[in-house]
Design a protein that fits this description.
Elements lengths: L2 H11 L4 E7 L2 E6 H17 L7 E5 L4 H12 L3 E5 L5 H11 L3 E4 L2 H10 L6 E3 H4 L19 E6 L9 E5 H21 L8 E5 L6 H12 L2 E5 L6 H8 L3 E4 L1 H18 L1 H18 L5 H13 L1 H8 L5 E4 L6 H9 L4 E5 L9 E2 L18 E4 L4 E5 L6 E2 L3 H7 L5 E9 L5 E6 L4 E2 L5 E2 L1 H11 L3 E7 L6 E7 L7 H12 L8 E7 L18 H7 L1 H12 L1
Parallel strand pairs: 1-10, 3-4, 3-5, 5-6, 9-10, 9-11, 11-12, 12-13, 23-24
Antiparallel strand pairs: 1-2, 7-8, 8-17, 13-14, 15-16, 16-18, 18-19, 20-21, 22-23
Helix pairs in contact: 1-2, 2-3, 4-5, 7-8, 10-11, 11-12, 16-17
């Protein structure tokens, strides 16, 4: 049975049970399995009436919603290749990806966004507003689902394009069948580890856009399981939405977890007194325990914090939260330890769009902070030149859309070349150290991965929005530091953080200068990719004059 057949069967079995919801105006609007099937059938009839055939492409440009999920499943059921795009991305970038994928039709969330697309692509195909697709009477019994061979393409997901034009990653039915089998099994392990009663409905919360591979895989996994998936509709109200959803677990990016940790630690510091002392002692005790150096006093400190403080912290994050899953970038070990100390397991995953989102995934109960777990079953991972991670297995993509040369290069020698640097320990757990293309080469010949240094300075300076390390072909390293608010940052505060981050580093890895940028980098201003990663080439071009002055002044 294919993953799509399994989802449809599960929705039929849950015909009168809630399966999917979205937060609207302070409450959750949900659909049952039967209602979602009706929406899917309604969308299928719309697509067939517009002349879609097997292998045609249809773009899906909208924020997450129940209707987004229904359209996605409808397209796949009709063997239409889905091209999901991020609604917040710059219209010019969206138009470029649409031109590249050449869809027969664009399904769009609103007229304003549709007009922006036409502005940058006057020859755009017909654009249908999503709400208009679901007007009229609900559809009748579902049609027969198209059968997919393993090599049949399902979707074209565009990569971030951190240093160039985004490429369309073609994922096929074989990739997704394999991945959903794996994610389902690992979640079974997780629920058993946290003692969720077998057969009880899982509650999942989700805020990451479905146009990202890992996010999409979670959607399909949730619809394959006995679960209720609640979708966020307002990122500014995540805390309130979490209280409504009461999830068992949810998928995260490190940025959010870092902010949650920072806010809780700041609240404890401001409270001061006995509570601050208890928390500080517990942190030291937990660090000692992880190093295998725990004492009786450490056990007492953790017991006290676990009885009187940690339950309150857990309730502020999620009353029923049993675990967190983190991906897209390495999570700082200190942050992972923070949540684990309070009693919330954190599983890390590593992967790329080209690997159907996942290559490694922590095994519940066997988590090592700072590492992203072992390779998932049936996946081979190795190290190539410059410690580049190489991957092969059923999760590896078929190729880039209409880019045979790029495909051949990425899959040279039968392995997918990830472009990431890493290393594996004796127990098989991987650590990701940086991106090869981001590597800074000083004119002294030293090779430096910027990501660990950026993370270290960001931890010392939580009030900053972003940190960008510079120095390629220069004699030393410098940093751009962006402020979160219009109030900005004081230079002396940044200097103190730089000094702390530099402590213990070899001279060639120390940051010797910095420039303050008064506003954060964003997707809207073209400085971040759709999933929030730094567009280093765009940043270097935008701040070229400031960067040049920075190095000239310090070198003088």
């Amino acid at each position: 049975m294919t993953f799509l057949e399994n989802i449809f069967r599960r929705l039929e079995q849950a015909a009168s049970a809630q399966v999917l919801g979205e937060v609207r105006d302070g409450s959750i609007v949900s659909v049952t399995g039967g209602e979602l099937l009706a929406l899917i059938e309604q969308a299928r009839k719309f697509l067939v009436a517009r002349g879609f055939k097997k292998g045609d492409r249809c773009a899906l440009l909208a924020p997450n919603s129940i209707r987004w999920a229904a359209l996605d499943l409808a397209m796949m059921a009709e063997s239409i290749i889905v091209v999901p795009l991020y609604a917040r991305q710059a219209p010019a970038e969206l138009a470029a990806m649409l031109k590249d994928s050449a869809p027969l039709r664009i399904c769009c969330s609103d007229a304003r966004l549709a007009a922006e697309i036409v502005k940058f692509w006057p020859a755009a195909p017909k654009i249908s507003l999503i709400d208009g697709i679901f007007t009229g009477e609900p559809a009748s019994a579902p049609s027969k689902t198209s059968a997919h061979a393993g090599s049949d393409p399902l979707t074209i997901i565009y990569t971030s394009g951190t240093s160039g034009e985004a490429k369309g990653v073609v994922l096929n039915a074989g990739n997704v069948n394999f991945m959903l089998e794996l994610t389902g099994a690992r979640l079974d392990e997780l629920m058993k580890e946290v003692k969720k009663p077998s057969g009880e409905t899982e509650r999942i919360f989700h805020y990451l856009p479905f146009c990202f591979a890992a996010s999409w895989i979670l959607l399909l996994t949730a619809l394959s399981r006995n679960s209720v998936l609640t979708l966020s509709t307002d990122l500014t109200k995540l805390s309130d939405e979490l209280k409504l959803a009461e999830p068992d677990y949810f998928l995260n990016v490190p940025t959010l977890l870092e902010r949650v940790r920072g806010k809780i630690e700041e609240a404890v510091r401001q409270k001061g007194g006995f509570a601050a002392g208890m928390f500080s002692r517990a942190q030291r005790a937990y660090a000692n325990r992880l190093r295998g150096q725990g004492t009786l006093a450490d056990s007492i400190s953790l017991h006290l914090a676990g009885s009187f403080m940690f339950p309150t912290i857990r309730r502020t994050i999620g009353a029923n939260l049993k675990a967190l899953i983190s991906g897209s970038a390495p999570l700082a070990p200190e942050t992972q330890q923070f949540f684990m100390m309070t009693g919330i397991p954190v599983l890390q995953a590593y992967g790329l769009t080209e690997t159907t989102a996942i290559c490694t995934l922590d095994v519940p109960g066997q988590v090592e902070p700072g590492r992203v777990g072992p390779a998932i079953p049936r996946i081979e991972m190795s190290l190539g030149e410059n410690d580049e991670i190489l991957v092969r297995g059923p999760n590896v993509f078929a190729g880039y859309w209409q880019r045979p040369e790029a495909t051949a290069k990425a899959l040279e020698g039968g392995w997918f070349h990830t472009g990431d640097q890493g290393e594996k320990d004796a127990s098989g757990n991987w650590r990701i150290s940086g991106r090869l293309k981001n590597l800074i080469i000083l004119n002294s010949g030293h090779n430096i991965a910027p990501e660990p240094l950026e993370d270290a300075l960001a931890r010392e300076l939580p009030e900053a929005s972003q940190v960008v390390i510079l120095g390629n072909q220069r004699s030393f390293l410098a940093a751009l530091v962006t402020a979160q608010s219009a109030n900005g940052l004081k230079p002396e505060r940044v200097q103190a953080a730089v000094d702390a981050a530099n402590s213990g580093l070899p001279h060639y890895k120390t940051i010797r200068a910095f420039h303050l940028v008064p506003e954060p980098l964003s997707i809207e201003n073209g400085m971040l990719t759709a999933n929030g990663k730094l567009k280093r080439d765009a940043i270097a071009a935008r701040y070229a004059a400031e960067i040049e002055r920075l190095f000239e002044k310090k070198s003088a």
